[in-house]
Amino acid sequence: xKVALVHDYIKEYGGAERVLEAxxxxxxxxxxxxxxxxxxxxxxxxxxxKKIIPSWAQSIPFFVSRLHSPLRFLAPFIWxxxxxxxYDVVISSASWYITKGFKKPFGPNHFIEICYCHTPPxxxxxxxxxxxxxxxxxxxxxxxxxxxFMRLYDFKAAQKVDYFIxxxxxxxxxxxKFYRRDSAVIYPPVELPKTIDIKKQDYYLIVSRxxxxxGLDLAVEGALKxxxxxxxxxxxxxxxxxxxxxxxxxxxxVEFLGQVTDEELAKLYKGAKAxxxxxxxxDFGITPVEAMSVGTPVIAFSGGGYRETVVSGKTGLFFxxxxxxxxxxxxxxxxxxxxxxGNCIKQxxxxxxEKFKKEILDFVKSKIK
Length: 369
Prior knowledge:
Helices cover 36% and strands 15% of the residues. By secondary structure, it is of the alpha/beta class. It has two domains: 3-189 and 353-367, Rossmann fold, CATH 3.40.50; 204-350, 3-Layer(aba) Sandwich (Rossmann fold), CATH 3.40.50.2000. The strands form two sheets. It has a seven-stranded parallel β-sheet. Strand 11 (274-277), helix 10 and strand 12 (298-301) form a beta-alpha-beta unit. The protein is globular, with a radius of gyration of 21 Å.
């Protein structure tokens, strides 16, 4: 069985890239086709030992560093330029860049296309995104025009996919709504070192790229108003221009740790009183599961994929009022609770990397005739 992997692009390292890593472990000989890669990005080091095949867009001046977003209308031409006819199975890891619907050779003996969908592109379907470019009138007008044609293309490309896998029930619902397609749900892999001997400390933790739509402003304002200690691990990414404003707002009372190693991350998770999961409509959310995997409970906004991972009253709690006051109220409620770390660990085990790898391999084998 000859397999190819396709990923949006290799730039920042996040949940989608952890999925790609696991796919590489399942299919170690599979090359990675991608729109482009950035050697300076946080993701490249994780895949530089693999055979990476970028598109022609890699050669466009400044495309990798800054033009891939404004020139997103090139995505159809990028994916249709790849010749994947020599493979039996093509598995795409798809999110922002409409990574699906690849050109197939004529005849019955073409490859099977399986799309592991992290979400239909959020910017196309009205979901909050990391940068609010819509506040600029010219950019908004450009986005409306480009978005219309890209939605048409996205729907058409989705009909060419043989099988969809959704990373959560939340995303399966979006696939059904926007593509009118069924999908299997296979949760993303979560893996962190488990043997960590660190006592709980008096801080709350967020692990996130420093971008919009992650609730970072909400957390910082809550920390300033209520006086709780907050640490944020992650580096700025993409076109988020308000990083300095966020740090200035924090008034040196919030620790911004930048990018940390997996070992450092595990220690941060283990030492935290609780993890704060604050996206409004998260697709799945690997970080809350990572926190639970070392016994740390989660305080989450009641929305999106969080509802599939956190068990209220057992591994953490939810809050419904998406305001600073709502967050502070949830923290005060949490501090009166007694969450058993063992329950958190047991819940996280449902999302293990080994389970993911087995389910993906079983799914692929079941579709090969």
